Amino acid sequence: MCDPTDAAACGDADRDAGAMSAGGVAARGLRRSAGRRAAIGLVGGLARLARATARIAAGLVLAALGILFLNYVVLSTDKAHAYRNLDPALGECRDGLAKGWTILADTGRETLRTAMPVDGDGWVDASNDEDAAIATDARWATRLRCALQRHRVPAREPGGRDLAYHLGFIEFQEDGEPYALVSREGASDTAIDSAMLRHAMDSEMRAKGMPATMVKPVITQLDALKKHLSTGSHYVIAFVHGWRHDARIGDGNVADLRLYAAHAARFLAQRCPSDPSVCDMDVTAIYVGWRGARVDERGLRLWFGNAIGGFFGNLSAGATLFDRKPVSEAIAPAAISALRTLETTLSAPGAHNKLIVAGHSLGGNMLASGLKDDVVKAVRRHRFGDTLPPVLGNLVVLINPASEASKWTAIQREVWMRLADHADAHTSAAEVARDDGYFPADQRPVLMSVTAALAFPAGGLRPGDCAWIGLDVDDAFAAARRKIRSRLAATDSMFDTGVDYDWATHDLFPTFKFDFRPAAGFLDRVAARFEGRQPRGESCSPPPPVDLAAGLLTLPLRTLSLLAATFPFQNTAREDSHTIGNLDPPRPAAGVLADAQPSAAPFGTTHELLGLDAPGLERHNPYATLADAALDCPRSDQWLSRARRARADRRGNFWDSADLAPGRSGEAGPAARFLHGLQLTGIAPITRPNDPFWNVRAFDNALSRHDGYRLSSFICALNQLVMDDITDSPALMSDHRDLSVP
């Protein structure tokens, strides 16, 4: 403070104060300016971020639209196109039916001399390729369009017997409409040549001495098959293909059906010396085609090679499951109607024909969708102790079906509601035992689903299980523990080499149904493999320590797994999100693995299937070699009845086709090992021993991956269920009239 008497000093002080005041004002101004610049900068940054986000969003939208454009326009297959619709009356087709074509086996043998390719997913049959036949002669591109064909696999060894079979096609449009036959090459796929049709009708009228009003024109593929099956004795295999396939020339599922048909011809030839009734039985394979492939993956591979074309094909096809599944369900009524028409043709009085119907992937979904109501109705009308007749043909088999488990559990619930499930305060053990007779002892399976399972045991291992398994105590469960340890050792070795389970229906299908928990498990298993560990719940081996590098590498996978497992609002209804073969009944809280306790939700898988390591069977046999291959598929009469009798002390529960009661000399078991119930899992069987509905968990030495259904043992085991009298009662073709009459 200045002295008031010193004017000069006070003036200097005032000047300093003014300067300080001005400086403060300036500083505040600078601060306000800086604040404004910061605010402007923040607003500008947010605006730039918003513009960048908008550009990214626009880019994603454009990319999505681009993918949709590629999928629906550029790479799309024809929406209404039949690939095998040439009239069998055409010269090329007629000559082939008279002589039988050996071109596929001939070119296949030449290919096998140079290579037997194996792709990343398993076996590829190089001897069963329509494209190779066309490469030798372009006329095969026309011949292979015939709606009905006859193929032969010549025997090359002395004393061998040629194999022969017919191959027919029924194709459906997306609305379920069938396709008309084409009576001349180059004609429209949607119109039949009227002059050709009139000539065919006149010829048939003269040959049979029938008036024109009684001659039915052969217009569709179904008409051609009905005509073919109306005479003679037939063993028929009908196959409904799945996702990413159709009936085009060169399709892998068509080749798979030819492999099945040649196997069936070989099996019947083996039975001929002991059963003359099958010697003249004609094998007819029927391919039920639909537009399961909406993306032209085959064209991509042809244009860009297997590596690049295959990658983009997988990428483009991945999104089509959304729209192909509803199409498979829309076609289901038409497909079931056509198959029932063929069944009626085969069920003519005095005929001894047999029909097995199989559906793979979405083809399995088609059959499950189309048959569910019929099967539920059959169960509701079933009388206690009567044999339940087949629901379609002699047996329906769903192979790795991409279908909601609810379509199977709806059938299981109908049976469950009619039976005493387990003894309790309200139900006696005598009532439970009495209800074992709801289906008789000679009941055969009528509907079977088979899915390549992930691991043993069903439901996984609990921490306490490993401690119990390791006990060295001579108690009532000592033998069971030894068996479990043996199985776990096999499971560990399967993991070391990679478990070939059906990833498509186990992990991918639930993801499309907005259940991300199986995908989380998949990520955990991938992370465990990187870390050199066994996945949680699949092994009792002590986990090795995880080094820092592996931990850092798998951290993103573990994080994604956690997010997927805990993602909010996902679909948690397992019967709606899991597929038929990947819904295991929950294990009870009490008990150990060898102590079977009733499940509180007894719905889901019911049986297991394992390979037997049988010589000649437990391998892939190429199509062109089947006439001469060291392949044995003997008769398996009575095996199911003998398996049930062998477990009489347990009321037939937990029967095992590898443990049969004594029978007649020469009677063998099936080519693969069927087991009732989920054995050594701590779960009591959820179905009775005689139940005709088998939901089978298969291990990868019997059925592997999504498309690994070509082992000769698996093909033999399926055919034995129909070819042979596996119970004390012979198989009969179903008469469906009783399903609709009150």
List keywords for this structure.
21 helices; ten-stranded mixed beta sheet; alpha/beta; 742 residues; two-stranded antiparallel sheet; disordered C terminus
Mean pLDDT: 85
Shape: globular
Quaternary structure type = single chain
What is the topology, as strand order, of the major beta sheet?
3-4-6-5-7-8-9-12-10-11
Main sheet properties:
10 strands, mixed
Distance between the termini: 117 Å
Query: How many separate helices?
Result: 21
Strand content: 5-15%
- Helical content band: 40-55%
Poorly predicted sequence stretches spanning 5 or more consecutive residues: 117-121, 188-197, 736-742
Q: How many strand segments?
A: 12
The structure class reads: alpha/beta
Tell me the radius of gyration: 33 Å
Task: Summarize it.
With 742 residues, the chain is α/β, with parallel strands linked by helices.
